[in-house]
Amino acid sequence: MPETALTPRDAEEVAAAIAEAAAAMQPLELKGAGSKRGLGRPVQAGRSLDLSGLAGVTLYEPDELVLSARAGTRLHEIEALLAQNRQQLAFEPGDLGPLYGGPAGAGTIGGALACNLAGPRRIKAGAARDHFLGVVAVNGRGELFKAGGRVVKNVTGYDLCKLLAGSHGTLAAMTDVTVKVLPAPEKTRTLLAFGLDDAAAIRALTAALKSAHEVSGAAHLPASLAALSAVDDVRHAGHAVTAVRVEGFPASVAHRAAAIKTMLAGFAPVEELHSANSRAFWRELRDAAPFVRHAARDLWRLSLPPSRGAEVVARLAARLEVLAYYDWGGGLVWLGLPPSGDAHAAAVRAALADTGGHATLMRAPDGVRAAVDVFEPLAGGLARLSARIKEGFDPCGVLNPGRLYAGAPQPAASGA
Prior knowledge:
By secondary structure, the protein is an alpha+beta fold. It contains 14 helices and 18 strands.
């Protein structure tokens, strides 16, 4: 835990603080509101650089679908502003504060981009990095730099925004960011199929995703986790719940929902959720809410081919008491395991070994996260390349040391 906090008020003060730290070889922990402080390895630093004071929307042009804000601006403030113009952050960033025992609504736009964590709409809209247009940031030398612009066509040469997205503050301290925003859907419907086992559910989700119906969410919850939902039709189902979301103009949504309902009826009984309940349900999945109630469990996030998700969970369930749900059509698995001294890391990575997937330890006690690989270990060539990038941005290793990997200056993990 850092002993003292630096609280810069603008980009120039951020640059001065980092330059001083680099000259003194004193590591810094970068943080905004701290809502995702439990994600990654515990930072090895004696001081923190608190960026939460860099807050406020600095530009919003609804007609141009662009918004700029200080990196410490709370996501809920941005989302409320966008909602006034029926717009949204289409990558659906999660509110992970409660997952780590903190309050809801604390996450910042800088933290969302630094972690590159997208929600259920990732399968249609892409990741956070795909909406990240421009940045003002300070590298580990204390040098202020700008990258990108206000429109996609301005991004030429090295796209540093995509490099910073998923770097978890190990390459630079972002002070200002610009993102693309998109119209919010006029209508949302979710089709729920009941009682499918994991393998059958993923087959149903795959059929929906391969259809022409522009699915924007595809998930499956076992009965035990569905029972924790705040949405009545899900909580009282008494069965596993397989969900498919469609969004857009009302007439289009009605047509596509009817077609998907017919398709899913070949797998299991089907019901519908309309707009308000649909939004509530997908927020729960976005925020990993089922595991807020299972706070003692070590929590993993597995990214793998959808066709292999049920198989990997079954492998682990043969040895461990597993709780898991599937997003992204089965390509993302939120996996809760009984607490242990190593979060069962060897078993998790062994189960994934032949899939081409990777695993991130999303939640575990500090001592566990300090002792095991939180992010997927990098192969030799990639590790060397990433370490060179880290050295180029932060040669003294003062920015979030140890957040991604143990040891001296290490590479950034981009996330999914």
